Amino acid sequence: MDNTVEIYEVEKELREKRLAAYAEAIQEKVQKDSEQVIKELIEERYRQKKTQQEMADITGVRASNIARFERAGCTPTLIMLEKYANALGKHIEIRICEDK
């Protein structure tokens, strides 16, 4: 019986490690993709000659948060991406795809 518990614990630990690695890989991909989207949105903001303060007024998000969003230091929420894009008259579609 003790052997069964040990096997279960080892398998459980291995599953947790695989899950953590998978979650990290997903996070890295999302970060990379969101950085590109943010870059394109910022370029559009410049084309439209809108300031960060104007974006804050349109979105209802504080200007300091707009600045943080534009630095892309962390993965933005989908709501923030949507608000920012909508303020520029753009639409963002979120799709989940599986690599095969």
From TrEMBL:
PROSITE patterns: HTH_CROC1. SMART domains: HTH_XRE. SUPFAM superfamilies: lambda repressor-like DNA-binding domains (SSF47413). Coiled coil: none annotated. GO terms for molecular function: DNA binding. Residues 38-95 form the HTH cro/C1-type domain. This is Helix-turn-helix. It comes from [Ruminococcus] torques.
